[in-house]
């Protein structure tokens, strides 16, 4: 599952350029010192990975709580179906409903904090920018969050979103160093077409995982703890 998270991040980073690309271009980097520039970009990515790990931990706790009630397999199937539906349902239908209105104020505060940090040039600035960047809304991050909930294990959930973040690093680094190379419409067009296909594949993986077919690593059987009710009285 971690491999699927990495590939989702790798492919999804073409989509994320629209959200994170402008922020990456605005980073107050030291363009005269290549070593310092590399260190600054690395801090930016560490900040994003830290944010993704925290997001994974939070939603992993939710998944863990649901797992206590013995609905983990059903939840995995449900999330897999939801992932597929989100790809198949036209985006125009979602535009009619403002599901994200309640968090608009939080998002605006994050953007305001980002604006202040972009004016600074201290080392911690890049870590902070990356950290705040990780909390900006993104459809692909939502998919990673669904995966984190379905895993139902705090550490696995955190690692799932972390690996998603790792997958975004190569392209986001290229954006900083050679952004013009990624402006080709042909590349973005074909990768954008591949993203929904891969999301459906991940959805199917979660459905298989929830079915517990006994397939190693893909659909393992759910372990059931049997507690004996036989007690001896003396």
The class by helix and strand makeup works out as mainly alpha
Distance between the termini: 51 Å
Number of alpha- plus pi-helical segments: 9
Rg over C-alpha atoms, rounded to the nearest angstrom: 20 Å
Shape: elongated
- Low-confidence segments, given as residue ranges, are 224-231
Mean pLDDT: 76
| DSSP strand content | under 5%
Order of helices and strands: HHHHHHHHH
Q: What's the main sheet like?
A: none
Number of strands: 0
What is the percent of helical residues?
A: over 70%
- Tell me the number of structural domains: 1
Description:
The protein is mostly helical and 234 residues long. The protein has 9 helices and no strands. The protein is elongated and about 55 Å long.
Descriptive key words:
elongated, about 230 residues, mainly alpha, about 0% strand
How are the SSEs ordered, and which strands pair?
Elements: H1 2-25, H2 34-68, H3 72-88, H4 91-95, H5 104-117, H6 123-133, H7 139-151, H8 154-178, H9 185-211
Helix pairs in contact: 1-8, 1-9, 2-6, 2-7, 2-8, 3-7, 3-9, 5-6, 7-8
Brief description of this entry?
It is built from 9 helices and no strands. With 234 residues, it is an all-alpha fold.
């Amino acid at each position: 599952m971690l491999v699927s998270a990495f590939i989702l991040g790798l492919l999804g980073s073409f989509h994320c350029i629209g959200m994170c690309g402008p922020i990456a271009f605005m980073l107050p980097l030291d363009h005269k010192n290549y070593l310092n520039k590399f260190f600054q970009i690395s801090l930016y990515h560490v900040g994003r990975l830290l944010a993704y790990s925290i997001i994974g931990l939070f939603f992993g706790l939710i998944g863990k709580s649901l797992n206590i009630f013995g609905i983990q397999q059903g939840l995995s199937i449900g999330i897999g179906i939801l992932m597929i539906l989100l790809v198949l349902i036209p985006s125009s239908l979602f535009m009619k409903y403002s599901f994200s209105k309640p968090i608009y104020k939080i998002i605006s505060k994050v953007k305001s904090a980002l604006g202040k940090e972009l004016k600074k040039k201290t080392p911690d600035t890049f870590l902070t920018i990356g950290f705040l960047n990780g909390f900006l809304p993104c459809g692909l991050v939502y998919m990673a969050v669904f995966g984190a909930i379905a895993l139902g294990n705090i550490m696995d959930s955190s690692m799932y979103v972390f690996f998603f973040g790792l997958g975004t690093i190569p392209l986001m680094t290229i954006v900083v160093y050679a952004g013009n190379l990624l402006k080709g419409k042909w590349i973005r067009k074909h990768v954008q077409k591949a993203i929904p296909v891969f999301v459906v594949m991940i959805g199917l993986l979660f459905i298989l995982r929830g079915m517990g077919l006994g397939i190693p690593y893909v659909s393992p059987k759910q372990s059931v703890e049997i507690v004996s009710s036989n007690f001896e009285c003396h």
